[in-house]
Design a protein that fits this description.
3 helices, alpha+beta, elongated, two-stranded antiparallel sheet, 20% strand, single chain
């Protein structure tokens, strides 16, 4: 493999910024599919992607819903959804 071949392969992969954006959007999308934006008191989606390692941390402060929706479970599901979105981005 020549240097230009390895550069071409990297050009086909998403950038770190695209990975972070994809993960954050997926996590936020999941949260707002479970809660109206007006009832979410606070939330923080922290995503980092360095050296091929994805880290996703989701904090959600929202009331438990009448249907039993637990904000901690939604935050965990949002983090998993973010990871799955990144896997899809890489075609895995």
């Amino acid at each position: 493999m020549s240097t230009s071949d390895s550069t071409d392969e990297r050009a086909d992969e998403p950038t770190d910024e695209e990975v972070v954006q994809t993960a954050a959007e997926a996590a936020e999308g999941l949260i707002f599919s479970r809660y109206k934006q007006s009832v979410v008191r606070d939330m923080d989606v922290m995503v980092s992607f360095e050296d091929g390692v994805l880290e996703v941390d989701v904090y959600l402060n929202a009331p438990e819903q009448d249907d039993g929706t637990d904000p901690d479970e939604v935050a965990d599901e949002a983090a998993r959804t973010a990871r799955e979105a990144v896997d899809d981005l890489f075609g895995e």
